[in-house]
Amino acid sequence: MDSLYIVSTPYHFLLACTIAAYSDRGEKKILVLGSVREREKLIECLKEWKNNPFEEIICLEERTGYQGIRKVNAIRKNISLIKKIINRKFHTFIFDPDAPDFQSAAVFNSRQGGINSYCEDGISSYIRSKVNEPFHRKIVKKIVYGLWFERHENHTDSPLFQDAYLVKPEMLPKKRDDLVLWKIMGEDFRKLKEDKLIDIIGKKFEIDIEDVDIVVMLPKPSKIRSVVDFELLKDTYKRLIRGLVKKGYKIAIKYHPQEEEYLGDVEVVRIPRSVASEIFFFKMDKNQKLVGDITTALYTIKMINSKIDSISLVYIAGYKDQYLIDNFKKWNVKMPKTLDEALAIF
Question: Buried (b) or exposed (e) across 138-152, using 16+ Cβ within 10 A?
């Protein structure tokens, strides 16, 4: 059966390459949303890669940052294109099923008798979030996008998916009895390094963190506002970075690829937002440290280099989900309870 990968972030892009390159499924296509920053540059990297598994690369309409009718029209245009593409059964790999255009692929493919696989979407894959959307908004979305549109507390709750590909399937808080789980292994990422894709992307984006002491991974506010005090977290990051710079450390920060800069004027190196974190993880050594909050990067880095220390600000931000905290403990992620305690780690 031919397969179809639908991605909207550099991390999705990298995972799609990981899954597609080392499988023996039929013809493979990849649909890339316009929100992937510097999409054309990433596509160039893919075309340069001798093991590129995709026979066709299709660009979807940009919609990130759009508001009102402009955003609705972009999503509806994507849904229309996806419906034309899925005119027979595929094996789809979908990373963000809360997005109406992405969810439409699973719906249309189910109607054709195809297979739908959910693929890791960072921390969203491992937490349960109440769907607090007002009833009238749900109705409007069904009218605008399709009566099939639904959101779930966890992406894997959707009956549209037969299986799920996750970096840490054991961290899934709850799963349907009929859902099959597949583990994305550290060696799968390392194969991309061996096969030169990591080097091609690193060179294309001119990533250089050799002189950096600490890398700070910044979150996407819309993803975490419901679970942490974002303003407190943002202030903590600013104070932490200034404290570390004052101690003589060189800091690099990495914003979410779909986010604009929000920390203001801080004295740091900026890693390109359009690069998946795992690309520069391969360039880090055991003396460098990684700082974040609830990002899955804090444990995916352990698959690439288990000797690198990762530090989470979950306690300082007031995060209450004990389930995730317990899993961070298993992966030896350090979790200081105060800013002074965090500064003392370095």
Answer: eeebeeebbeebbbe
Over residues 15-41, the mean pLDDT reads 82
| Last residue within a domain, chosen from 143, 161, 190 | 190
H/E element, 11 = helix 10-21
Give exposure, 230-268, as e/b (b: 16+ Cβ within 10 Å).
beebbebbeebbeebeeeeeebbbbbbbbbeeeeeeeeb
> Would you say 3 and 92 are in contact if contact means Cβ atoms under 8 Å apart?
yes
User: Out of 57-66, 95-104, 108-117, 336-345, which region has the weakest mean confidence (pLDDT)?
Assistant: 57-66
Q: Is the pLDDT of residue 147 over 80?
A: yes
3-state secondary structure of 73: helix
Q: Tell whether 121 and 214 lie within a shared domain.
A: no
Instruction: Flag whether 16 is in a domain.
Output: yes
AA letter at 62: E
Query: Which residues are within 8 A (CB) of 318 and not within 5 positions of it... i.e. 6 or more apart?
Result: 228, 229, 232
DSSP three-state, residue 199: helix
Q: Is the pLDDT assigned to residue 37 strictly greater than 70?
A: no
